[in-house]
């Protein structure tokens, strides 16, 4: 039995496809379509894991693993023994890497995700909408300052932290939220030049 990744179209689970491609790990892919009206995941995902969200990684023994961060750590511990995609623990880059790995689904994700709920509800100018806009600006300033000083999220070397930050920043770029003089533009160009990112884009083009 091999690993099976359950991916939801146009979702954050594309980061795990990219990571699997970077690792060169063997996997089978199952693509699920969002409901056209609600944009929610189909019931098929809830048959695999109670939360019914993507990504889900079904392991060799049939256990379904949820949570992007946990899946990334599982894959790295299993397929990145040589630490190609993460700094060595105890190196100065290690805590920097850890912070961005967790920020990607933590502080960074929510203010961008809230756009998807607040905009259709006409709540962008509400107190919550204004709070989330201020949070997004703070996060983008933090990301800008980091990428102005370092080539990659973990420092001077590409790592899995770049994969985990990719979805949010590509979405922000698509929404026109990244200014032309932001170092994020250059980082986006460099991630898009990576063969594994291009392989992921070929797969997700059908989403
Ligand atoms: N914290 C989870 C979040 C998973 C999640 O919310 N996935 C979204 C994809 S962007 C989803 O499946 N949404 C569809 C739904 O909730 O029905 C993770 O890191 O994987």
Shape: globular
**CATH architecture of the largest domain, please?**
Up-down Bundle
Bound ligands, each once: glutathione
Quickly count the domains.
Answer: 2
The average pLDDT score comes to 96
N-end to C-end Cα span: 26 Å
Spatial extent as radius of gyration: 17 Å
Q: What is the succession of H and E elements?
A: EHEHEEHHHHHHH
Largest pleated sheet? 4 strands, mixed
Q: In oligomeric terms, what are we looking at?
A: single chain
Q: Quickly give the structural class.
A: alpha+beta
User: How much of the sequence is in beta strands?
Assistant: 5-15%
CATH topology name of the largest domain, in short, is: Glutathione S-transferase Yfyf (Class Pi), Chain A, domain 2
Annotation, overall tally of beta strands: 4
The number of helical elements comes to: 9
Q: Spatial order of the strands in the main sheet?
A: 2-1-3-4
Helix content: 40-55%
Uncertain segments are: none
Name of the top-level CATH class of the largest domain: Mainly Alpha
GO molecular function, one term: transferase activity
Domain GST N-terminal: 1-83
Protein name: Glutathione S-transferase family protein
Keywords: Transferase
């Amino acid at each position: 039995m091999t690993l099976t990744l359950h991916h939801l179209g146009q979702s954050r689970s594309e980061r795990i496809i990219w990571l699997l491609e970077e690792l060169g790990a063997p996997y089978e892919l199952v693509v699920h379509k969002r409901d056209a009206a609600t944009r929610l995941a189909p019931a098929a995902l809830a048959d695999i894991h109670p939360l019914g969200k993507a990504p889900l990684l079904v392991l060799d023994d049939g256990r379904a693993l949820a949570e992007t961060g946990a899946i990334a750590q599982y894959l790295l511990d299993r397929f990145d023994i040589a630490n190609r995609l993460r700094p060595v623990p105890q190196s100065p880059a290690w805590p920097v890497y850890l912070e961005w790995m967790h920020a990607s689904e933590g502080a960074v994700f929510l203010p961008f995700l809230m756009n998807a709920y607040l905009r259709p509800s006409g709540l962008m100018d509400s107190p919550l909408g204004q709070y989330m806009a201020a949070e997004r600006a703070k996060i983008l300033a933090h990301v800008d300052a980091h990428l102005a000083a370092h080539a990659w999220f973990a420092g001077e070397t590409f790592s899995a932290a770049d994969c985990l930050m990719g979805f949010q920043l590509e979405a922000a770029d698509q929404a026109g939220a990244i200014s032309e003089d932001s170092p994020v533009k250059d980082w986006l160009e460099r991630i898009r030049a990576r063969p594994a990112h291009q392989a992921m884009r070929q797969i997700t083009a059908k989403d």
